[in-house]
Amino acid sequence: MIDASDDLIDTCCRRTEPATPVSGDDLLPASLRSGLLSMRTVLDAPPGGVWQWLTRPDLLARWSPVVPDRALITVGAAEARESPLSAVVDATVVEVFEPFRLVHRWGDDTLIWQLGPADTGTQLQLVHQLTARDSYADVAAGWHLCLDVLARSISGQAAERLVGADAVSAGWAPLRDAYRDRIVPNDADD
Predict the structure, then answer these.
(1) At 188, is the pLDDT very low, low, confident or very high (cuts 50, 70, 90)?
(2) Number of domains making up the chain
(3) Out of 3, 4, 80, 113, which residue is the most buried by the measure of CB atoms under 10 Å away?
């Protein structure tokens, strides 16, 4: 059961500014193959710095829908939730290769985070193994918003966490539609 993170989640998720609407004009590179949604972005920090944002609950609570009850730095059981009132979901850490690869559950899904050097910082690839394959556009839009907040936070810009109703207000639906138009599911290996 998560208890230590409740105050942290509540503190980190308070909104200080209204959400900024996002258009579908600037989509992240994304693909879908055999239920694996893959998205990429470049972040303005070295891999070790980005790693902190992927593994520390206090930093995850500033941008991610996955807020765990412990740091995601060792293999083993973990739980997560989106907000203090959300249901607890499995966040078991399956694999850790610091600071290049993190694999953990998110409920019934699995998230694979891969980091590598880029000319301007770190190339981040998120592979989201979907149990509900037809949700790919919804999930891509959500991750687009979250990864945008992560990028702005890492670069020192003010950015509010966008999940749930805040994500919808920030332009989630147009992003969903744009990703649905852009991503062509490839299930040839099934």
Answers:
(1) low
(2) 1
(3) 80
Question: Nearest to residue 155, comparing CAs of 20, 53, 15?
Answer: 53
| Whole-number pLDDT of residue 88 | 96
> Does residue 25 surpass a pLDDT of 70?
no
Determine the Cα–Cα distance for residues 122 and 151; give it in Å rounded to an integer: 11
What is the DSSP secondary-structure string of the chain? ---TTHHHHHHHT--SSPPPP--TTSPPPEEEETTEEEEEEEESS-HHHHHHHHH-HHHHTTT-S-EESS-S-SSB--EEESSTTSPPEE--EEEEETTTEEEEEETTEEEEEEEEEETTEEEEEEEEE-SSGGGHHHHHHHHHHHHHHHHHHHTT-------THHHHHTTHHHHHHHHHHH---B-TT-
The pTM score is 0.85
The amino acid at residue 82 is: E
The answer to the question of residue 22 being in a domain is: no
Residue 151 belongs to a domain with what CATH number? 3.30.530.20
Q: Report the pLDDT value the prediction gives residue 187, as an integer from 0 to 100.
A: 67
